[in-house]
Amino acid sequence: MSRFFTNKHSTLTPYTPGEQPRDKKYIKLNTNESPFPPSPCAIQAASEAAKNLQLYPDPTYKALHEEIAAYHGLTPEEVLVTNGSDEILNFAFMAFCDKEHPAAFPNITYGFYSVFATLNHVPYTEIPLKPDFTVEPLDYKSTADTLFLANPNAPTGLALTVSEIEEIIKSNPNRVVVVDEAYIDFGGETVAPLVRKYDNLLVTRTFSKSRSMAGARLGYGIGCKALISDLNTVKYSTNPYNVNSMSAAAGLGVMKDEAYTEKNCRAIIEAREYAKAELKALGFEMTDSLGNFLFVRHPKIKGAKIYKALRKRGILVRHFNSILISEYNRITVGTMAEMQALTDALADIVKE
Ligand code: PMP
């Protein structure tokens, strides 16, 4: 730390992203990326956009907002695109949380929520999950907090139903409920259709997972016009050109190729269910994940040991140091061939 780093950040522990090693070729199952390349339509659109990189992007992202709005049956004023969904989540903390509007989220969830809260000096409560890692909806009813719920949750992959979330939204009419649907395309039930019904609902989505564009950094939020207007105030006060032209174009491209995204999601779901069955046969225990990842432990082998043994065999998975989940590893679902390589490696490790 330099002598100049301000005290206001003295308690900030930054988010630790998953490894992106370049030293050798791993089977990369550690950051919930898609195993499939971006849609050819996205690549084509991004390279066209590259020809005009001397210009700033359209800060209103008109075409992309219209496309996303049409996808959800909304108007462009109910949509805001951001630099990854991380950015809209940070904007939500900036816009809707302060000392009088503290945040709350599960004690086991996406690790960035607590980092954004600390960065923005927002007090927060971490609400314990039940022992089976499910969220207890009653814990989120009639709170004094701005709520952040990943659905499906990460790293468990477990999801609440639409009616459970609707009850939470209804019972907190004076607080914003942010539903982070980063993994919704792999099996959960979306609450996006409730956006017009509740003025306190913000749904966030990403192009990083089902749409194979993690490197493009593109996400968005949908909510009522007033919420989106507040988020725009924050955006225009931080970075009006928050999404680069190539990513915005690629986003439009992939949205015009829905069949490609749907095919990839089906393949990932099939590989996930295959891997669940194979790992169970090897004695692993796991949540019934609806995400593009599994959350697994072995009753006889420590989580860290499995992580290291897989790494030695060229397979990267995510092991979290948190004491609550240190027996677990989160394993991204890749192609069927990658899942076969994973189960072969785990069969080996279990035998050792
Ligand atoms: N929400 C959840 C639950 C996530 O796991 C992630 C990515 N790891 C994000 C949001 C952010 O994704 P991105 O910024 O790539 O859109």
Question: What labels would you give this structure?
Answer:
Aspartate Aminotransferase, domain 1; 7-stranded mixed β-sheet; 352 residues; Aspartate Aminotransferase, domain 2; 3-stranded antiparallel β-sheet
How would you sum up this structure, described in words?
This protein has 352 residues and is of the alpha/beta class. It has two domains: 7-37 and 259-351, Aspartate Aminotransferase, domain 1 (Alpha-Beta Complex), CATH 3.90.1150.10; 40-257, Type I PLP-dependent aspartate aminotransferase-like (Major domain) (Aspartate Aminotransferase, domain 2). The protein contains ten helices and twelve strands. The strands form three sheets. It has a seven-stranded mixed beta sheet with strand order 2-8-7-6-5-3-4, with helices on both faces. The protein has a three-stranded antiparallel beta sheet with strand order 9-10-12. α2 packs parallel to α7 (245-255), α3 (84-96) crosses α4 and α8 runs parallel beside α10 (336-351). The longest helix has 24 residues, at 258-281. The termini are far apart. The mean pLDDT is 97. The structure holds 4'-deoxy-4'-aminopyridoxal-5'-phosphate (PMP). The site of 4'-deoxy-4'-aminopyridoxal-5'-phosphate has 13 residues, from α3.
